[in-house]
Amino acid sequence: MVNTENGQKKPRVRFQIFHYYLIPLVALVVWFGLLISLLICWGIQGRPIYSFMTTKQNPVYLSDLGATNLQPLFISCSGFQAIFFVGTLVVGYYLRKKHKIQPYISHHQPRLAIASIICAIIGQLGILFVSIFNTKNFHSVHLSMVGIFIAFVFLACCCDFGVSYIFGSRGAKLDPIHNGTIFGKSRFANLYFVSFVAKIIWLIVAIVLAACFGYYMKHGNDSLSARFEWSICFWYGFLLILWSMDLFPSAVRKYRSKHPHLYETNQYDYENQNGGNSQWEKDINNKGRSSSELGDQYTYVNSPMMQNQKLANQQFANEENQTNPNEQMMQEDPALQNQALANQQFTEEPALQNQKLANQHLSVADQQVPPQQQQYEVNYQQQIPPSSQPQYYEPIASTNQNPSLPQQSHVMPDSQPVTYNQDPRVPY
Q: How far is CA 207 from the centre of its chain?
């Protein structure tokens, strides 16, 4: 129990009472009911030794009780539990394919699940034929069907346990909402691997019990052999409990989808609950739907939001992988790389920035000068001294003269008249 803010107590785990996890439990109740009923009836009858039995023993074999007037009970209960046994595996496959519980994380898992279903069907047909062909009238057929039942149920368990092992050994690929199942840093430190270990323990115990049953039967100790047979029958029911635990998360999520205001959800739109547009708040308001129409939500990793996020991440990765042609050319040409470094250095040094501004100002001044004043250029041999009155040295006249423009003439001693145009950039 957990204390709420109001001091009230509520359970740690809330779940939908009538849900898929009940399917193997129904098979369990029917199977245990069959076994207990047969033992009670045999005890009420005074623990008789039937005429077709060769030796006295205590207790008798299950097959011996099924060959008496209790055979209709044996047939009906065996067939009923067989339906729910196979239905458990089918429902588990359906829920994982529809992403209502932890979906498959390997392409081998669906194949193992289908193989498990096929083997389970054959094995459960075997137990049905065991009840139909009784040991009294069809002894050899009866023993053959027992062998088929044990062999194919064993194969079905191995395939299903393989699915659990893949979940438990690859915890990094699990749905993010299953982070609560991880309790350590090791990749095997998760509840799925614990479930796998529990199933392996069940399988090992079942093999040991079956081996003891066959050993004592072969050596003529029927009483001890019968005890191991009944132990195997009851132990078989615990497998159904393990499978019920595999389907239980679906019942938890069903309850959360119908009562998000009572239990904090960890599904994909939990972050949007305060926005008022989430599916969970629509379920609270019910929107005219009955409670039976409120189905399970997608798991977080397979939600539309996460699918869009995956597409966005993929597109972003593709854009990063695509190199700009200019950048690619620059990477291939060292000269362009040096030029890029020079440009970067130019933009970073203050002195170069001032020079750049000065050049821009000078280019603007050049554009403002009338075109007729730029026809002639004079190259002076010496720099003009800073003086308020211009001092002229003999210039080298430009050969590109335009007679249509006004000319200025200066006669200097021992020299020929020269003409020049005043350079506006030279301070006088």
A: 35
Q: What is the dihedral of CA 276, 282, 285, 286, to 10 degrees?
A: 180
DSSP state of 409: E
Locate the domains of the chain by residue range: 18-258, 303-343
In the 8-state DSSP scheme, what is residue 112? H
In this structure, are residues 38 and 44 in contact, taking their beta carbons and an 8 Å threshold? no
pTM for this prediction: 0.61
Question: What are 307-351's pLDDT values in tens digits?
Answer: 565 666 676 667 666 655 566 665 666 676 667 666 666 555 666
Contacts of 304 (CB under 8 A, 6+ apart): 268, 298
How many whole angstroms separate alpha carbon 428 and alpha carbon 425? Answer: 9
Burial readout 383-411 (b: 16 or more C-beta within 10 A, e: otherwise): eeeeeeeeeeeebebeeeeeeeeeeeeee
Say how far apart CA 89 and CA 116 lie, in whole Å.
8
Both tokens assigned to 427: 């301070």
